[in-house]
Amino acid sequence: MTGPGGGAGRTDERKGRDAATPLPDAALAARVRAGEVRALAKAITLVESTRPADRSTAIGLLEAFPAPGSGTLRIGISGSPGVGKSTFIEAFGLRAVEARHRIAVLTIDPSSRLAGGSILGDKTRMAELSQRPEAFIRPTPAGRTLGGVARRTREAIVLCEAAGFDVVVVETVGVGQSETAVAGMTDLFLLLLAPLAGDELQGIKRGVMELADLVLVNKADGAQADAAGRTVAEYRNALHLMRPRTPAWTPTVEACSALTGSGVEEAWQRTLECRAALEASGDFAARRTAQAEEWLREEVEAALHERLREDPRLEPLAARLEDDVRAGRIAPPAAARRLLDAFFARPPSDP
Are residues 56 and 190 in the same domain? Predict the structure, then answer.
């Protein structure tokens, strides 16, 4: 794949991570800003790295990119496994390309809790979109991050926008009802459902439904077309019982088939209508502000956790408290309080 500004991007972005010589953050930032796909892939690999030295470089790199204006659009897409997220995103992405947009797709793949690895196969399921020079597809393992996204997804979004991609799609892991984190880092949240027999409304609970700006019932083709129509009707009735996420936009439920392309154009138009309504009401800017605030809170919490884990002063105390917790001699909340009290009792060690 050749991305905006040229440069072959079909080589595996993750290959040779440890062997590659790091570029100075200023030079790398300039190449990202020029739209070089290889530089963008390298930058995302850098911000995803867990090595302390890489983290310092990554922060310097991110400081080179101020927050983008409202010209970009961040779309979160979630749905249960097997609903056809990758197929839909490819059809949706091709429609965005036809509308002269540059689209970046960040796919979050589940990680093994035992081995820690991920298959990272979403890119292979978007073969046509991955061949387009206006598109960039980056698979990322979720690791131990909850909510269907990865630890550094927000930073990857910023880098994609800095590279000139004005539509960024975040595809969540697809684990069910708890995937609401993506709604806090995107401008629009699109929920995909499949035609189901029986109690469809038991499949998705209120927590994720009330955050959706657009609900699409996918696979509305062939023998499932009638079932899809019934599912659309039931979810439209269900949405009437929920308070909209914002008064400026009432979520809609539509049927589509990513396989045949039916309904994809309508989904694109609904996305544009939603954006226009949010911009007119000021909610679009408010969501961007909320994204930045939530990002700050997450970074503070994560940094505090890392400092606690890495501070050598706390190792003996942490080991004793862990033994006490395992033996039942102290409750975990009390042990956590003692650890925090010890951490804040004197200045922490240098990072």
Answer: no
- Return the structure tokens found at 291: 């994204």
Contacts for 320 with CB less than 8 Å, ≥ 6 apart: none
Number of structural domains, the chain? 3
Q: Domain limits at 313?
A: 289-344
CATH number for the domain that contains residue 331: 1.10.287
Q: Tens digit of pLDDT for each residue in 42-96?
A: 999 999 888 888 888 888 899 898 776 668 999 999 888 888 999 999 999 999 9
- Residues 281/248, Cβ–Cβ less than 8 Å: yes
Same domain, 87 and 215: yes
Q: What is the pTM of this model?
A: 0.81
CA geometry: angle at 148 spanning 145 and 151, to 5°?
35
CA atoms within 13 A on the CB side of 20: 18
pLDDT score at 97: 97
What would the two tokens of residue 227 be? 């079932």
